[in-house]
Amino acid sequence: MRIISRNIAQTNGPGVVRIYIEDAEDIWHIYNLIKVGDEVRTSTVRKIKNESSSGSVSTSRKRLTLSISV
Q1: DSSP string of 6-66?
Q2: Do 26 and 43 reside in the same domain of the chain?
């Protein structure tokens, strides 16, 4: 896990921490850091397949932001 930026006003106060997940174990550490009332957001890319009436399939990539409120 790599910390990109952090903005925390005081200990146990509100703030924002931006991190970069490098492996699956980092998710476990995040799980142990978040608490009720926190919001977790991430950016991801999804492949979207479109099928026309003739049967041809085209794919495109779309960037999405997923957000979870604990």
Answers
A1: EEESSTTS-EEEEEE--STHHHHHHHHH--TT-EEEEEEEEEEEEE-TTS-EEEEEEEEEE
A2: no
Total structural domains in the chain? 2
Task: Tell me which residue range forms the domain holding 41.
Answer: 37-70
Please check whether residues 29 and 41 belong to one and the same domain: no
- pTM over the 0.70 mark: no
Cα(47)–Cα(61) distance, rounded to whole angstroms? 5
Confidence check: pLDDT of 5 > 80: yes
Residues in the chain: 70
Tokens encoding 26: 């980092």
